[in-house]
Amino acid sequence: QAPAVLLRALEDVRPDIVLALGQTEGRSDLSVERVAINVMDARIADNALAQPIDQPVVADGPAAYFSTLPIKHLVARLRAAGFPASVSQTAGTFVCNQVFYALQHALAGQAVRSGFVHLPLLPEQAAHWPGPPMPSMPLGTQVAALTCALRSLCDGSAPGNGDERIGGGSLN
């Protein structure tokens, strides 16, 4: 249901910038996502008990969409402000990727900058997580970091075309 809710919000608000958010276990920082892929492959059911396997997010849609946000600039600004952040090469294949892909698909060809950030668990979620301990970040820190990210997108400091050339690749 998330893509339908997102599309209605995009129509109602008509934003200039969209920073979609999701949460996932195992992240210790704000993970600024690079690419959304056109596949849903869920290892568990979502909140509506749906568990799509090897299905496209959008039938006949392109294989992937890149974020149109200056992802490395965002990471650099967050780190400079004292917040842990990194570039993430993939949003996975669960609901967060579905939202990210639907967002980029809906805004393709429009002059709206958009992307996705994964957030860590809250401490109270990590404390009750079954299995091994999980990293977490307090809500106040997450809010402050996201405020910093949004300011960096709105204050004119973000690169107009392209992004900063900072190493952020992955070996795996």
Walkthrough of the structure:
- There is one protein chain.
- The protein has 172 residues and is an alpha/beta fold.
- The chain has helices at 2-13, 71-80, 95-107, 123-127, 139-154; strands at residues 17-23, 30-33, 35-37, 64-66, 85-88, 113-119.
- The strands form two sheets. Strands 1-6-2-5 form a four-stranded mixed sheet, sandwiched between helices. The chain has a two-stranded antiparallel ribbon with strand order 3-4.
- The longest helix is centred in the C-terminal third of the chain and has 16 residues, at 139-154.
Strand and helix map with partners:
Layout: H1 2-13, E1 17-23, E2 30-33, E3 35-37, E4 64-66, H2 71-80, E5 85-88, H3 95-107, E6 113-119, H4 123-127, H5 139-154
Parallel strand pairs: 1-6, 2-5
Antiparallel strand pairs: 2-6, 3-4
